[in-house]
Design brief:
The complex is a heterodimer of chains A (460) and B (305). Chain A is of the alpha/beta class and 460 residues long. Chain A contains 21 helices and 13 strands. In chain A, strand 8 and strand 9 (216-224) form a beta hairpin. The longest helix of chain B is centred in the first third of the chain and has 43 residues, at 7-49. Classes of the chains: A alpha/beta (460), B mainly alpha (305).
Chain lengths: 460, 305
Amino acid sequence: MKTSKTISRRNLLKGIALGAGAATLAACAPASQRPAPAEAPQSEAATQPAAAPAAPSGPTEIVYWGFSGGLGNTEDELVKMYNDKNTGVTIKREVQGNYEETAQKLTAQLAAKSDLPQIVLLSDVWWFKFYRSGSLLPLNELVAAQKMDTADFVDSLWIEGVRKGVQHWIPFARSTPLFYYNADMLEAAGLEARGPKTWNEFMEWAPKLVQKEGDTLKVAAFAHPGAASYIAWLFQCVAWQFGGSYSDAEFNIKLLEPDTVRAGQFYQDTVNKMGWAIASQDVQKDFVTGLAATAMLSTGSLAGVLRDATFRVGTAFLPEEKQFGCCTGGAGLAILAGASPDKAAAAMQYIDWATGNEGGAFWSQNTGYMPVRKSTAASESYAKFFEERPQAKTAVEQLPKTKPQDAARVFIPGGDQIIGKGLERIIISKEDVTTVWTDVTAELNREAEPVKRDIAAMGG
Amino acid sequence: MKSPPNNQNLIGRIRRDWREWLTFVLLAGPNLGLFVIFTYAPMLNNVLLSFQEYDLIRSTGTWVGLTNFQTVFNSSQTGRILLNTLVFTVASVGGVLLLGLFGGLLLNQPLRGRNAARSILFSPFIISGAAIAIVWIYIFDPRFGLLYTILKWLGLTSPNWLGDPNWALLAVIIVYIWRNLGYATVIYIAGLQAIPADLYEAARVDGAGLWARMRHVTLPGLAPVVFFLIVTSILSSFQAFDLINVMTRGGPANATNTLIYHLYEMAFINLSVGRAAVIALALFGLMFIVTLLQLRYLERRVTYA
């Protein structure tokens, strides 16, 4: 006679163990996999809308993945302004999270080939990855059909989204780092309420700004962010000021060049040897709550800082060392390659408005991001705005002196975090700068390989 | 000597077997199908991915042999990440088991308000990890947080919990234990209630004191529950992702970077799916070995009632 076999606790536990382990593995695998040799991304002709773009004929709904959090609230108002105009195009704004989360969701949806938006907000370090994969629509024809005045865009911002003469990423929420200072604290320390001209000058100021309680810093002269808060973006400017860089445009990593090592050593010394700076979890919070007298922050933080600070806030150009150095940053708008010609044209209509004199002015004045068009910055509304908020003028005045970022940070997948984690090792773990930069260089070189291959396959 | 079965019997048996087989397929089939589609096929896929340089956006890959394995195991970060994973697992599982036992023993007593206490203790377990992490970020704030205030009352200064690499892992472990304590406590209570009361009476008659009753009745009686908790807690602590992602993102300076977080980072920040697959395999292997060792060596000591 057969005996029936009942499950034992032992078997159940084995099953759970196997199931849990398998689930971990399963979580890593993409939904579908089609192993195939690496191929060049779809050619641009293949990703162009089938017909010549034309103005949308009927009511068209465009899905847009945009900002989350406080900036998302402002963007809700922006979208509402546009939708209230009844142009025949309705924008449906959806939120996926921060820049990284938006890019991850987009990656998943592209693999699944479903539920894709028409417009997506992509940060400086993410758009290129989607361009490489042929996921972004080439925009030249749409720009021409929309009669957008491309010469009106700030040149340095416009050219960042151009590859091989074709626009793929239109500047929208663009920023630069600014030097923020607590004017009340500077004056209380017997200093002028202005930004330092050079880092040497700031090193003279710093001891006067520091306040200690025993061994603990009660007020630091300056605050550095962590890797998660884009320290690699801000330090890039300092590397340039010291005469160094992360890399050249051909992905030759320059971290071990003497000036970049010197810049890294300077950052470490500000926290450890000189002891006037802190490694902060949240620089904006530490600045507005008075824990740090000064900080480098994005122009995009200006509205939040002015709203929360209970002291006089000043903004200045970044300090110089060997030279001036400041990069651009932030995010732009892209249209996905799968959009139908009608939807693509409608999407471009919105982008034109949102970056233009009406939408763009509202957006930049209410966030702190820079006006991306020259005519917006020169408009009457902006003249009035600068009177009310002189801090915002610094960003616009500094803009002509900025330059696009190093390839190592923006074009290498994970480049920003690889460099950022290296900086954490330098500042927080006090590791030797050359040792850290050697490790980071090796990692960047490894990660750059597929990008270089793709760029070669795409013809530049 | 046995006589051969006649045809009638044979047909009957085949029918019965067929019917049993059909019942089995009907009952187990759907579940098995789901397992194959959503667990085992992706698992196999993961093994294939570990030998490829895979582009997640384009869904294309090239075979690179063992390169991904070499890169992951030669990385200067791997040692640190493995150590973090080990410390996190041992400390969080140990903490949950010991404090849970204490909670279980306490809340198994006929105390006033014990049902309310059980519910309160269990509630963190059903709250979203991200929400818990956000609340604890405020609690840990070294200048305004609740812990800062408590430590100040005691005349102590608050460490920079999440900003100092020497404290950050401990901070995450504390939150993990706090979140999972209620679950262990409830399981312990169930285990305690399953121990027959007459065993305690017999022990008392034999003159056993509190400690002797604990040692010779309670702990052996709880052995199956402890074993269950050890296995499930270790598996879930290996996979603790939400708290780390929201509280520290593996930082500062890799201080809280564990295998599961590193896997995410590799796949979705660096877009290096092949290497992420290697990390997933390593994690699977580690969990598999730990569980096998537990079943081999630990379960021997367990007596099921």
